[in-house]
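[scheduler] slot 2 assigned
[scheduler] job type: sequence-to-structure, two independent chains
[scheduler] chain ordering preserved from manifest
[runner] begin chain α
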Amino acid sequence: MQEKNSLSTPVRYFKGVGPKRSDDLARLGIMMAEDLIYYLPSRYEDRSKIVMIRELKMGQAQAIEGEIISTSVRRTKSGRLMFQAMVTDKSGFIHAVWFNQPYLKDYIIKSAKVVLYGKVDRLDRVQIISPEYEILKEDGAESPHMRRIVPIYPATSELSSKYLRSLAFQVVSQCSRLMEERLPVYIIAREHLVDAKFAFRNIHFPVSFENLERAYRRIVFEEFFILQLALAMKKSTSRDAGGLKHSTEGELMLEFRKTIAFELTEGQRKAIADIQRDMSSERPMNRLLEGDVGSGKTIVAAHALVLTVQNDFQGCLMAPTEVLARQHFIGLSEMLMPLGVSVALLVGGINSETKSRLYADIKEGRVNIVVGTHAIIQEGVEFNKLGLAVVDEQHKFGVDQRAILKYKGDKPHILAMTATPIPRTLALTVYGDLDISVIKELPKGRKPIATYLVDEAKRDKVYGFIREELEKGRQAYVICPKIGEASVAKCESCHPEAKPKDLRVVDSSAHSGPQNDAMSSISKVKNVTETFEKLKNEVFSGYGIGLLHGKMAPKDKEMVMKDFKKGHIKVLVSTVVIEVGIDVPNATVMLIENADRFGLSQLHQLRGRVGRGEHESYCILLANPTTDDAAERLKAIEETLDGFRIAEADLEIRGPGEFFGTHQHGLPEIRFGNILKDFGIMERARREAFDLVGRDPELKEEHHRLLKAALVARFKDKIGVVHA
């Protein structure tokens, strides 16, 4: 048996915990005393102020103390049992009422002294409904439930918050003094932090709100610090010498620059300079290129690819969907093949003879740049000399898929790209081990996209407006949230070859609405095949209508995209498979059906498919939102075109766990703190962590021993860079 009162004491040895409770606690991850100390309250109630009954304010939660002068149990007109007690504190009387709890008559008895906490109301009398209660004991012992700032713990159906509070009070009282200080003393002093013992006592049972704030800051700082320490060590490990040093000057680069017929933005020029500096060093580049929709990331990636080819290396560009891969292939081929650079397309579904020939060309170095989907990381693909791997919309690939790409060469440079603007708060958490370049400006000449939220009742007017645009010679997109009867459109952009039962949600907000809204009436959700038939036969019968979705054959998708780009198709009815990478300057209208079914960032991505030419462009959100979150998303997308502001709003609405989907980006769970509200703490923790790793990269110094042990225990399976 463990020594009583040690941090490793199993919780079953504490008072009030038997085998059944022990199992229930284990399901919350609470096996021993230390686990419970780290099971923090979700909120607090101020029950420290006792209010006289005559001074109670209606509609507010307040604490009162008095004597029970009578009790009774009766049945209401609706058939519910009601237990009530009349309480007085000499200033007045109040009725406490509990429903369907007749057993309380054995605990709450006449003449007992009691403290009650709850919301006070006045119907035919002043009363307090279902209040928290505690019978006062004569010994005056300290109570965890009343006369204090009271912690409210995340509860389950088996474990009430009151039970968890009683257990926490017992464990914290006996064991918090045993908490070891993991943070180095110099960081505690520099950051003006309280010590661990003080922090954990006051985060559970604060003496004052000031102490609670100091405890919260300390615990959140440590949480963020250990996370940033892991990222700093990962970055340090990935930046070992032995990268492929590139020369930035050469004929091919000069010729390529001459072909660019437009002026680069300041953001593009800075990103190119960052990339050239990385690739000319002896350390492998590991950079994220972040830019809003239409900001011109592809031309920056093309610079990097040309640079690696100029240095006699191969490059590859991996995209999450076949549609996007083909778009990149066409664009890079048009730019680079006239310069003698060979570009090949590698996607799933090609016949074995073509695949074998392509594999051989890649292995022998006859292909300079390979553009493709996750087919690039298949086992049979071998590069002759891979110098640069570009991953577009990289958050749509799993962590393991991205890691495989690195091993297709000998420490190749890595450039990740995303058109989903990532708030700095989240970037420091998810991509803390990467260097980041941001392109904020749009190319000159881009016109703002007018965005309108339109009620379903005005559908005919919307169709009339689109018809007017078509008459001007323009083109339009109509986006639907699903393909057929199975609502899979949210996922096909990430896993186009997946069967419905295997689909994984990337942007989960489209699936996360309550089941009593539009999803419960699935006929209301537009599917792309039915919409295509209706528009082709009834609404726009005089125009060319095209259909595109992720379950179509590759050659059919390619043909549709070519016809749309050439203008043969006037209205393209599609799922979110066109979310990224489609560039048709003549398309001026984006109609999004059931817009409330999509996440904020995805709506912004879809909107970015228009406004790419010289004409005025429009995004129409057709929806009748039935939830507050959906209405909030649509309002945010209607009010701003700034992708970074939209991303901040998306993060606030959905939280970091849902922003990408944790299985995609490998974000370790943040147990304590809020990366939006506590961003200042995050930045200070990051500075301290990176400074420490710069001085002691492997945490070998004695005063970092406990820190290293905590790091190994917390992140060794998720980040894989720390070793005991």
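[runner] end chain α
[runner] begin chain β
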Amino acid sequence: MLFNSYEFIFLFLPIALIGFWLLSTCQKYSLVTNWLILISLSFYLIWNLKFLLLLLVSIGINWWIGESLARQCENMLANQKTIKRITMIGIGFNLILLGYFKYINFFVDNINGLGVNIGRVNGLVLPLGISFYTFEQISYLVGIASGKSKNYSFRGFLLFVTFFPHLIAGPILSADELIPQFRRLNYRFDFRNLAIGFTIFVIGLFKKTVIADAVAGYSTPGFAIANSGELVSFFVAWQTAIAYTLQLYFDFSGYSDMAIGLSKMFNIKLPINFYSPYQAIGIGDFWRRWHISLGRFLRDYIYIPIGGSRKGEVLCYRNLVITMLLGGFWHGASWTFIVWGALHGIYLCIDRAWKKLLEQRQLSLDAWYHSLAARLLTFMAVVVSWVIFRAETLSDAGRILLGMLGYSGFILPESLASQFGFLSSFGVKFQPLNNYSLEGVQLLMVVLGCTLFLPNLYQFMIREPVALDVYSHLNGQQPAWYAWRPTVGYACGTAIVFIIALISCNHKSEFLYFQF
């Protein structure tokens, strides 16, 4: 069941909310908690019963390992090697489970490519959300082992993992961020939180159904051309790359907004996951704005444990590349994801080296044109990386990237020959382009302009504590004149946006990050 489906919006969500509010009036903590668990398990059950059983087995084993760790940590005479051994068993269990479903056939195919004949596992389907709940359960075990987190009851842990707004595609969060919020204080009807949550949900729904799905029509054909083995022309290649860059952002940030909005309706706050990433100045800044919860996990559980920046610059660069390689591989079992991760690791090394150089030379590039140049360079680097991320194979990515460099020639639509015929003297050709349209270019430019220069959702909702960690990103900004208020005017505006988004729910759609 998708968040942008009529079944979810008009059936599942109302039942979930009404049940939550009615049971909260009974002042029975356990009843409300059990209701949240029931609707969350039902949400996952609609996808696949077999995968629900797998999820419950995973949760049960992780909770049991967590309890064992907690007992060892409470024992003053406990051997640290025992604690470490139990932790590694827990991490190993989670990685083996994830590895089997997500990577087994990738390794089999690559081994077979070396001339060895190993049979593939046929009919293997990736369980929804396994990449996300695996990371969350690993963080839970590591937190207990390190003494930074406490262990929780099985019911609390079960609700932490399965809470339906974040179950399928994050944001990735820790038990200490979520479980303490499942308390009597939050089990109540709160009209303001309902209004805030619904507004955020509607904005996310609009991002997904109106913007992401619209620009998708201009990215998919270009990748299909590359996949067929044909070269992609210059303008089609750039249209494809820009369209996918926008599609992925509005698709995933739209999901995250909907998840945060849904949680807020239940008086629960999830971590902010996107903060205008395409307005970043530098790749380091980009990763502080893009999929923030994943970036935080990679930093805390991979980059810092393997040494971070504590052992000198050379090893720091190595650690950055290793971290992003693993981050890329986490996204999917394909060499395109591995290369994408390696590329971002190199980007981060260049970003760090550049900042070190400026610091050593005591240079300050604070002029507006320096910031503009840095922002454009960062954006172009990200666009190139998304081509590799999206392509079916590295060869497909190469065809589009070569097209972006003009390798296949500069071709404009035949309809523009009358206006731009003078470009023929510079080698530009005018031919029919089936996968290029002026309307598409105009749409992409409008959406791109909004993405690069307009404020984001959290700046719009700055007057309200809508998500965890939001104020650390706002950096003391003051509310602008357009900042949301619970007024009739904003209610009417939200209703209009909701109707537009609902109309766009008619066509078939899916969230891109469900495949990761």
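[runner] end chain β
[qc] chain β: Residues 190-274+438-516 form one domain.
[scheduler] slot 2 released
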